[in-house]
Amino acid sequence: MESKYNLKSPAVKRLMKEAAELRDPTEHYHAQPLEDNLFEWHFSVRGPPDSDFDGGVYHGRIVLPPEYPMKPPSIILLTPNGRFEVGKKICLSISGHHPETWQPSWSIRTALIAIIGFMPTKGEGAIGSLDYTPEERRALAKKSQDFCCEACGSCMRSALLALSPDSDLRPVDPQAQRLAQQINFKAESSSSAADNGSSVAAVTASSDSESSSTAERDTEDTSSTEQTESSSMAAQASSEGPSVSTAPSPRQRRSQNQNQSPRYPTFPASPVAPHPPQDTSHTGSAVLIVLLTLALAALIFRRIYLAHEYKFDYEL
Fold first, then answer.
1. Could you read off the pLDDT of 198-254 as tens digits, one per residue?
2. How many whole angstroms separate alpha carbon 295 and alpha carbon 289?
3. Which residues of 21-46 are buried (b: 16+ CB within 10 A; e: fewer)?
């Protein structure tokens, strides 16, 4: 497998290291990559004690992105368990559904311990979550021992070490357990924040309406108070006489500006200019035209007359 991958890749280095650390199964979990795919792991986890999953061994897949450990893996359960849907990516703060909460310091071991810790919690409608009854989960826990994976060949009866009287009931990896507690806390805080979001929004809306009404009342009270103060100051100034001149305060000036309506100079309506009377008779112009015509005709006849007289004199 090593010849198939670039050994200088940070993801390959990290996965090779984790595969060596998880090579031997423990009493609570085991995970190894597939022989032909370093970025797909199969895991087996024991159900948490003192829960509905006690006695069960559950199998699943972990699909890792090429950017691992900078991006989170996707976790898929293959064994019916009553808590997570089979064959569907489950929604946890350590899975691919929440890349914003993933931390590169977490590992596949951390994810396994987190799955064990998350199993007894409520699904609350999260993606890939189920809320079976305790009886159904106990029945599935007993039935899980008969599950065998066709892809990796693991059988749940022999996938993990058997529990002994001296065995610890829970995984004892201090670092991974501490990280798993952080994951659990983040998941609870995010769900509680989502539950409180609607109530906070309602309280905010009611407080906004109350504050707006209070602001309106304060504005009305302030304006009435300013008007009262301005009227009292005006009365006091008139009683003191014209010799006393007191400069009004900024509040009084604002009140006076609000109470006094703007005064604009009023202009009388301009009278409409009367239309000039229309001259119905065109006598003057007609007389002028006639006179001009007659003068022109006289000039023409005189010209003709002079021409004929000159011709007569020439023939003589």
1. 433 443 444 444 444 444 455 444 444 445 454 544 444 444 444 444 556 666 666
2. 10
3. ebeebbbbbbbbbeeeebbbbbbbbb
Tell me what the mean pLDDT of segment 55-74 comes to: 95
Residue 70 main-chain phi, psi, to 5 deg:
-75, -20
Angle at the Cα of 315 from the Cα atoms of 311 and 316, rounded to 5 degrees? 120
Which pair of structure tokens corresponds to residue 96? 């691919």
List of residues 6+ apart from 67 with CB closer than 8 A: 11
Confidence of residue 125 (pLDDT cuts 50, 70, 90): confident
Residues 239-250, buried b or exposed e (16+ Cβ, 10 A)? eeeeeeeeeeee
How distant, in Å, are the alpha carbons of 1, 189, 196, 205, 212 from that of 200? 53, 15, 6, 8, 18
Is residue 14 within 8 Å of 82, Cβ to Cβ?
A: no
Q: Measuring CA to CA, how many Å separate 158 from each of 53, 80, 145, 166? A: 18, 18, 9, 19
Confidence of residue 26 (pLDDT cuts 50, 70, 90): very high
Residues 74-103, mean pLDDT to the nearest whole number: 88
Residue 264, CB-side half-sphere exposure with 13 Å CA sphere: 3
Which residues make Cβ contacts (< 8 Å) with residue 51, sequence separation at least 6?
Answer: 119, 120
**Active-site residue, from 91, 149, 152, 155:** 91
- Cβ neighbours of residue 29 closer than 8 Å, sequence gap 6 or more: 43, 44, 45, 46, 109, 112, 113, 116, 160, 171
- C-alpha to C-alpha distance for 101 and 106, rounded to whole angstroms: 11
- Residue pair 153/85 in contact by the 8 Å Cβ criterion: no
Q: Say whether 148 is catalytic.
A: no
CA distance 77 to 225: 71
Q: Return d(Cα 110, Cα 116) in angstroms, integer.
A: 10
Number of other CB atoms surrounding residue 9 within 10 Å: 14
